[in-house]
């Protein structure tokens, strides 16, 4: 999985355990998620693999920035190098994800159909799932992955 890179100073933060879910809080996070989800409906995606598409829209950085700032991602990522990507799990089968460089946060943005899960854990906008191992994500949703590079 490739990502848009962002260089930050090392920060400390408690990440938690594999598949730990945390409610997203912060100023306007719910509204930002809704606006980002609406933008993703018409954003450009390219097929990345079976049951999977990657957002390649030139406006992704601008559309994603308010969410990254509201979530204070730079403080949550302890690595000096981190990045993000937006993926669409189209289905009908699940897609597997793993960050070989370390951890990742899976942040659902928009549910397209059904009740998506990450290795059995329910996924919903407004919540993040911390992952340190491979997960299987069931369709159908658009999600932001923030990962250590």
In brief:
It is built from three helices and twelve strands; from the N terminus they run E-E-H-E-E-H-H-E-E-E-E-E-E-E-E. The protein is an alpha+beta fold and 149 residues long. Helix 1 packs antiparallel against helix 2 (60-70).
What would your notes on this structure say?
By secondary structure, this protein is an alpha+beta fold. Helix content is 19%, strand content 38%. It contains 3 helices and 12 strands. The strands form 3 sheets. Strands 1, 2, 3, 4, 5, 7, 10 and 12 form an 8-stranded antiparallel beta sheet that branches. Strands 6-11 form a two-stranded antiparallel sheet. A two-stranded antiparallel sheet has the order 8-9. A hairpin with a 2-residue loop joins strand 8 and strand 9 (121-122). The protein is globular and about 35 Å long. It starts with a strand and ends with a strand. Residues 1-14 have low confidence and may be disordered.
Rg value? 14 Å
Main beta sheet: 8 strands, antiparallel
Head-to-tail CA distance between termini: 10 Å
The number of helical runs is 3
Choose one word for the global shape. Answer: globular
- What portion of the residues fall into strands of 2 or more residues? 35-45%
- The overall pLDDT average reads 88
Class from helix and strand fractions: alpha+beta
Question: How helical, in percent, are the residues?
Answer: 10-25%
Give the SSE string: EEHEEHHEEEEEEEE
Uncertain segments of ≥5 residues (pLDDT<50)? 1-14
Number of strands: 12
């Amino acid at each position: 999985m490739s990502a848009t890179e962002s260089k930050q100073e090392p920060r400390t933060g408690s990440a938690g355990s594999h598949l730990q879910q945390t409610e997203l809080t912060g100023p306007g996070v719910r509204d930002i998620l809704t606006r980002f989800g609406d933008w993703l409906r018409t954003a450009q995606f390219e097929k990345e693999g079976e049951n999977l598409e990657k957002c390649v829209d030139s406006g992704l950085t601008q559309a994603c920035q308010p969410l990254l700032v509201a979530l204070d991602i730079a403080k949550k990522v302890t690595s000096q190098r981190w990045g993000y990507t937006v993926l669409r799990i189209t289905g009908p089968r699940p897609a597997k994800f793993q960050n070989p460089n370390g951890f990742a946060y899976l942040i659902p943005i928009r549910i397209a159909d059904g009740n998506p899960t990450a290795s059995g854990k329910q996924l919903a906008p407004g919540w993040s799932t911390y992952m340190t191992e491979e997960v299987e994500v069931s369709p159908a949703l658009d999600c932001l992955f923030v990962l250590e590079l």
